[in-house]
Amino acid sequence: MVSDSVDHPPFNETERNAVYRVIAERRDVRRGFLDVPLPDDLIGRLLGAAHSAPSVGLMQPSRFIVIRDYGIRKAVHEIFRAANSRAAGSYSGEQAERYSGLKLEGILEAPQNLCILCDAGSERGHGLGRHTMPETAIYSTVCAIQNLWLAARSEGVGVGWVSILDPAKLRDLLRVPDHLTLVAYLCLGYVEGFASEPDLERFGWERRVDLKAVVSYDCYSEGCAP
Amino acid sequence: MVSDSVDHPPFNETERNAVYRVIAERRDVRRGFLDVPLPDDLIGRLLGAAHSAPSVGLMQPSRFIVIRDYGIRKAVHEIFRAANSRAAGSYSGEQAERYSGLKLEGILEAPQNLCILCDAGSERGHGLGRHTMPETAIYSTVCAIQNLWLAARSEGVGVGWVSILDPAKLRDLLRVPDHLTLVAYLCLGYVEGFASEPDLERFGWERRVDLKAVVSYDCYSEGCAP
Fold first, then answer.
1. Cβ–Cβ gap B206/A20 under 8 Å
2. Domain of A97: which CATH number?
3. Is residue A66 part of a domain?
4. Closest Cα of chain B to A62: distance in Å?
5. What is the pLDDT of residues A120-176, one digit of tens each?
6. What is the pTM of this model?
7. Buried b (16+ CB within 10 A) or exposed e, B110-131
8. Would A48 be classed as within a structural domain?
9. 8 Å CB contact of B145 and A150
């Protein structure tokens, strides 16, 4: 029953390198979106990649809203502006200046946005795996987002995750029912190019840490805290 | 400043197919682990893939515990057995029979396990993106898990996510400090093969739903509920 793997030859070196390449060259894109809509079949492939993600109990709780309407994106952008103005107010001095110089979303430039929801209380999967850790329903949806992000990178499509939004206002705007959790709001589109480093590193906001600093063996070690 | 993308040619068709292939052929593996330890450099590549994941504000909150010690895995397995026995008691009739026939973890068979934590309160990233949606810190760690899962598949390494565990007992065992969130416990190892369908579908627990059933346009549509 298990040995139905004959159709799956090992990944060759070229394929394996492509997987590591897409992981390394994926970026959170907030600028340089082109005013060229993505074809429907490409959006379908990206959603298909998301929908293939692991899900606890095979519940597949993720729901997707593809947003192309300019009026709706304009309203989302207003929600962003209000939230970002409040966030900016929490910084001072040089950090405040740096924050105000950052470009943190491409809601209007990217011709399509994507809102991703989770039906965390769904009966699908019959609760398997959720008795002890019910949060895995929402984690399943996050796995779907990462799948989509990587597939998009391989298609030359930039993706940016915008979390500077008042979730309640966004839910009202998109008519999200109470039983669904709002997980993410993404901007998607063809881009001028992909940067070699994360924007937040390029513009001096934060530096990446060394992998060694975050790994322990067998038990958690206290030194593990960058 | 943006056009530093000259080093990044588009993904060619072979590379793009490899990305979609790894997404399609990734499985949640609970059986068929081989008693062959993964080399250190391979584990390093997998952790590197996880560590390259997007993170809100570039905070990189993920922490990893690589567990190879058999005594610790045995103790984790006991925690699983207790939780699974309670979970099994919540089903009745035919469903209870089906549940008891499922193999849901490979804690002892897989020569290495991996516990993944999140330092959600870290000052790294200076709170950027977390004023409105602080849950994105933990979501960053879930993105790291999905990166690792895909990299592992391309290396012929099976990964299984075990959520049938009492988080408090697991934290005690692995000496996880209070300020870290326990996000996931994985089993990792070389495997006999990868199945074509999810185990839970093969063994009649749940069926996958059609993508069309989970997509809306511009606003959430009520029909979107499989």
1. no
2. 3.40.109.10
3. yes
4. 7
5. 999 999 999 999 999 999 999 999 999 999 999 999 999 999 999 999 999 999 999
6. 0.96
7. bbbbbbbbbbbebebbbbbbbb
8. yes
9. no
